[in-house]
Write a structure and sequence with these properties.
The complex is a heterodimer.
Chain A: H1 2-10, H2 18-26, H3 34-42, H4 44-71, H5 74-89, H6 100-108, H7 112-138, H8 146-155, H9 174-185, H10 194-199, H11 203-209
Helix pairs in contact in A: 2-4, 3-4
Chain B: H1 3-8, E1 12-13, E2 16-17, H2 18-30, H3 34-60, H4 63-80, H5 90-115, H6 139-156, H7 160-171, H8 176-183, H9 187-201, H10 208-215
Antiparallel strand pairs in B: 1-2
Helix pairs in contact in B: 2-3, 3-4, 3-5, 4-5, 5-8, 7-9, 8-9
Classes of the chains: A mainly alpha, B mainly alpha.
């Protein structure tokens, strides 16, 4: 195909086609371009055009090299070599698994403090919840709450009674829980949550709307 | 033709051809001298990394991406060096690995591009640092520099195969026979791609016809 193209493009006694001229110049190994190259030796106009194209190509390559070399400085290449060295040294060794807090700290950066506070708050909430739950249990004997009564009923079966199934466990007493919530909601420390609380439906709302 | 100069670059480190360095590393690897092989491989990396980084950057136009592609290629070369055929050119073999890696990265980038918002022009795909100023030069040199920039921009718009052939022959300075070995295309196919690329690029390569008409 290329041979036929050359025969067509190079012509005889005419200026070669631009593409044929460029390929002949930029691919000196192509035997098909020999005729064009001979023409260049004899035709100053085509020679000048070829030289212009070569000038552009040479400048393009020089620009490309300058751009790349401006980025890949000696220091960058040294770092690149160090990375390759390290990767080859680590070849065959199992990957090192970082413990969770370390990996989090490495990635967190500026958000590190915020995450630490969030974790502390979560932990504090857990502790407060556990302590509060324990307190409720302790107060069961002194407060006349339904929770205490129900718990006493289910947790303390008659010690010496017959082994018969006891009454079914009573449903949890929501009222007592809600009372606790009301008390907590009355605290001035959570004033901003009152709006959310106002939007929260009460158990009686469901009872009223029930079937 | 100016290909030979760039082609020579990177072939020699401290007077030793890369082929000989590669053969030395291979011999050490086969002898079980892993540490010695790594030390010699470091010399091989030093001898080839600048040209490799340039080539990867021509493809990827992103420093970090090109850097990673070059590192990956070196690691891959070291891993497979035991099976390297020393009768073949090390540079060609290495370039093939590197170019394939770059093409894989370009494909991955295209896939990501389908799902992510494009960055504004000028932020991606362009060198992070402007080329150094050329200083005061005659007008023809300025015009040639402009044409060269236009040529490089036009190369980026070529179809992938044509772009590969032009990058490897015109910017990386490899003869078509070597490009054939790097790309896996036959030499005549490489020439067809080069021919078609030149047809597309002829206007930015100096407006040869217009110049001849003016002069003729």
């Amino acid at each position: 195909m290329m041979r036929r193209l050359w025969a067509h493009l190079a012509g005889s006694g005419r200026h070669p086609d631009e593409t044929a001229l460029l390929v002949a110049v930029f691919d000196p190994g192509d035997a098909g371009g020999a005729e064009v190259r001979r023409h260049l030796d004899a035709c100053p106009q085509c020679r000048a055009a070829a030289d212009r194209a070569i000038g552009v190509q040479v400048e393009a390559r020089a620009q490309a090299e300058r751009d790349a070399d401006a980025l890949f400085t000696d220091a960058v290449l040294e770092r690149q070599r160090a990375h390759v060295r390290r990767r080859l040294e680590q070849r065959g060794h199992p990957a090192r698994v970082l413990p969770f807090p370390l990996s989090g700290r490495a990635v967190a950066g500026a958000g590190q403090t915020v995450r630490r506070w969030a974790a502390a708050a979560a932990a504090a909430g857990l502790i407060v919840g556990a302590v509060a739950g324990r307190l409720v249990t302790l107060r069961q004997g002194t407060l006349p709450s339904a929770i205490g009564a129900n718990a006493a009923h289910t947790q303390n079966p008659p010690p010496d009674g017959p082994d018969v199934p006891g009454p079914a466990p009573a449903p949890p007493n929501d009222e007592a829980f809600l009372v606790e919530l009301e008390v907590a909601a009355a605290s001035p420390r959570i004033e901003p949550l009152r709006a959310i609380d106002a939007m929260t439906p009460r158990i009686n709302d469901f009872r009223r709307e029930g079937p | 033709m100016q290909m030979s100069g760039a082609s020579r670059a990177g072939h020699v480190a401290a007077g030793q051809p890369t082929g000989a360095l590669a053969a030395d590393v291979k011999a050490r690897l086969l002898a079980g001298d892993d540490e010695g092989a790594r030390a010699r491989f470091d010399d091989l990396v030093q001898a080839t990394q600048r040209r490799a980084s340039r080539l990867a950057f021509y493809y990827l136009r992103d420093r970090a991406d090109a850097d990673e592609a070059v590192q990956d290629a070196f690691v891959k070369v070291f891993v497979h060096l035991g099976g390297f055929d020393e009768t073949q050119s090390f540079d060609t073999w290495f370039a093939r690995i590197l170019v394939n890696g770059c093409l894989d990265r370009l494909k991955a980038r295209t896939r990501r591009g389908r799902w992510m918002v494009d960055t504004p022009p000028g932020e991606a795909g362009q060198p992070a640092i402007d080329p150094p100023a050329m200083g005061p030069t005659p007008e023809d040199e300025v015009l040639r520099a402009e044409a060269a920039r236009a040529l490089r921009a036009a190369i980026d718009t070529l179809p992938p195969r044509q772009r590969d052939v032009v990058l490897l022959t015109q910017l990386d300075g490899r003869p078509t026979a070597e490009v054939s070995a790097v790309t896996g295309l036959s030499e005549s196919t490489v020439r067809v791609h080069l021919f078609r690329a030149m047809r597309r690029l002829r206007h930015v390569l100096g407006a040869t016809r217009a110049a001849r008409v003016d002069e003729g």
